[in-house]
Specification:
The chain has 622 residues and is an alpha+beta fold. One of its GO terms (cellular component) is outer membrane-bounded periplasmic space.
């Protein structure tokens, strides 16, 4: 199942004193900023509330391959081709970093000060004098500009160019001062400017002075400012990171608040296993320290045995407040088969969530009901109701201008996902699906559902591995009752990712990254331009002027109320366009771990893998 990119975590920073430009356009510098209002932590705070500032240091954290990745062929996480080694984000930092217990605030990391212009058309950072790369060279404004310009070029993954499209340019003011100019007023842009990864201009430099082109960097050791270095690796099998003994944070006069209670292990070792069953058995055999489980059945039945009974191994579901976003079977609307919304809606009636939850998931899940599930940004967060006046102010003009792109359903209460709870039933749902398909020109004859040309309704579902086969098989059985023919194809992670990058699929499972404060990443996920660029998150292929307009409203929101209004309007349009057959979510992280592992209370918003790596520690046996 697709997982969010691990290299795009928000990083926190301090506001820089801008000594260049018009005095009337200067804002007061500070240690942190918030997109709306003020950041939670005041000037001079010592550490985040959710860490253990006295966590012991040392030892080795051994982890399995995250997600479905079972190999790697590069260290460069910023290019489109290839599979990146797990944990490589440990080597990179940014000007700023965000906290995990508030929405969209950042604090200074590589930067010790930042200043947002009063007209919000630019932001300026000052780089700490102590900040250094892993090769000992100083982090300078020229490196920050090089990183930004490289990510915005054709050499890097196209998602960067889409996400940072509203940043006009990076301007070097001095060796350690850099300003980012914006194309428009977007309250998220100062945060985006502070949180992209920074790397050295010398990454890939050869002894003879030549530099390997960025897009061709593979196993050349990254030069970043992060806390860890690569100690050793076996290509595609394992990789070991060790603490950088010259890590610049350790050279500061006092502990850096953003790093107190973070990165407590001397080494981090990733072992990559061939499949999920092997990985679970390896955990039971004591080959690694912690495992995040995403499959309900395995969590219920696989994490058992003598070591769990005697307390050598533990399992716990940790509550989180992450927005659940959207997960579901996504249709590639670039395919003619899925361009009729009635067809897409019909396919949604064939998924029997209640049966799956009862028979396969041990009733651990709730149904996805929005593109912003489990968040106040959802159009049905406080119950199904019609759009508010503020939402209508956005939707009505778009309906008048683009009537075919605004479904009539957006003006009513948000419809629930199809259900088989009584008085509903699968049989009733399939009848509704049949009627929708008939009106779209598909009728059952000669042993299959066919269009007017006699062509059968047939498509392929692709997945990265076989762990989802029971779910897919159940869904396919119901589709077959409608006369639809479905081929199921599974492949390893690398081949699947290549197909996703090329949009070479009919239907697949997607998981759109959770966000408490969505912004420019929505251009990459739903924007028309992204649909035309290989490797974007817009795997669905949405090219809607209405969606573009509502994403623009989200990115230009001046406060949380405006953001909520625009997000709910977008939610209504996407939901009623039936691009995805919604699946399910769980508001907990399921983690199994060795008894020696220790952890602080979890923050509000977090990924389990990052939390373990950043904030856990190990109590060595006496």
């Amino acid at each position: 199942m697709p997982t969010p990119n691990p290299f795009h975590q928000f990083t926190q920073f301090l506001l820089l004193a801008l000594l260049v430009g018009l005095e009337s356009n200067l804002a007061q510098g500070a240690q942190g900023i918030a997109q709306y209002g003020k950041p939670k932590y005041a000037e001079g705070f010592t550490h985040f509330d959710y860490v253990n500032p006295n966590a012991p240091k040392g030892g080795t954290l051994t982890l399995p391959n995250p997600g479905q990745r079972n190999s790697f062929d590069k260290f460069n996480p910023f290019t489109l081709r290839g599979i990146t080694a797990p944990g490589i984000e440990l080597m990179f930092e940014s000007l700023a970093e965000g906290s995990a217990d508030e929405v969209s605030s950042i604090y200074g990391l590589v930067a010790d000060d930042i200043q947002v212009a009063n007209d919000h058309k630019s932001v300026t950072f000052h780089i700490r004098n102590e900040a250094k790369f892993s090769d000992g060279s100083p982090v300078l404004a020229a490196d920050v500009k090089y990183s930004f310009d490289t990510l915005m070029s054709g050499k890097a993954h196209p998602r960067y160019k889409t996400t940072f499209a509203d940043i006009k340019e990076a301007v070097i003011l001095s060796d350690r001062s850099i300003r980012f100019d914006f194309k428009n007023n977007n309250t998220e842009l100062p945060i985006l400017a502070g949180t992209f990864p920074i790397f050295s201009r010398n990454w890939g430099k050869q002894p003879d002075g030549t530099i390997i082109p960025f897009e061709k960097l593979a196993f050349e050791t990254p030069i970043g400012s992060g806390p860890y270095l690569i100690e050793s690796f076996k290509a595609g099998k394992s990789i070991v990171y060790k603490k950088n003994p010259q890590y610049w944070v350790n050279q500061l006069e006092k502990p850096l608040n953003l790093r107190v209670g973070f990165y407590n292990f001397e080494r981090v070792l990733y072992k990559l296993y061939s499949d999920d069953a092997v990985r679970l058995e390896a955990f039971k055999a004591g080959e690694f320290d912690a495992l995040v489980e995403y499959r309900a059945k395995i969590w219920a039945k696989g994490y058992v045995g003598s070591k769990f009974e005697n307390g050598t191994l533990l399992k716990k579901a940790f509550l989180n407040h992450n927005g659940a976003g959207m997960q579901g079977f996504a249709m590639n609307v670039r395919r003619p088969l899925f361009q009729d919304p009635r067809v897409r809606q019909a396919l949604g009636y064939a998924l029997d969530f209640e049966w799956l939850n009862r028979q396969i998931f041990f009733d651990q899940y709730s149904r996805i009901n929005s593109y912003f599930t489990n968040s106040d940004l959802s159009a049905n967060f406080d119950g199904p109701h019609k759009p508010t006046d503020a939402e209508l102010k956005l939707l009505k003009p778009l309906k008048a201008q683009y009537p075919q792109w605004v479904p009539d359903g957006v003006f009513g209460p948000m419809p629930a996902a199809p259900s088989t709870k009584p008085p509903n039933s699968l049989r009733q749902n399939l009848r509704q699906a049949r009627d929708l398909l008939m009106h779209a020109g598909w009728q059952y004859r000669d042993g299959a559902l066919r269009n007017e040309k006699g062509e059968p309704f047939r498509f392929e579902i692709v997945e990265d591995g076989g762990f989802f086969l029971r779910v897919i098989s159940s869904y396919v059985r119901n589709l077959e009752k409608l006369g639809i023919q479905v081929d199921i194809r599974t492949s390893d992670f690398a081949l699947h990712q290549k197909r996703m990058n090329e949009y070479d699929f009919d239907m697949t499972t997607v998981r759109f990254q959770d966000s408490q404060n969505p912004g420019n990443e929505l251009w990459d996920r739903f924007g028309s331009q992204a649909a035309k660029e290989k490797g974007s998150d817009n795997v669905i292929g949405i090219q809607s002027p209405v969606v573009d307009a509502l994403v623009d409203s989200i990115t230009k929101a001046k406060n949380r109320d405006e953001l909520r209004t625009a997000a709910r309007a977008l939610d209504r349009v996407l939901w009623n366009s039936y691009y995805v057959v919604p699946q399910w979510y769980n508001p907990t992280h399921r983690v199994a771990f060795r008894k020696e592992m220790r952890y602080p209370e979890p923050p509000l918003y977090y990924s389990a893998e990052a939390w373990i790596m950043q904030n856990w520690w190990k109590e060595e046996s006496k």
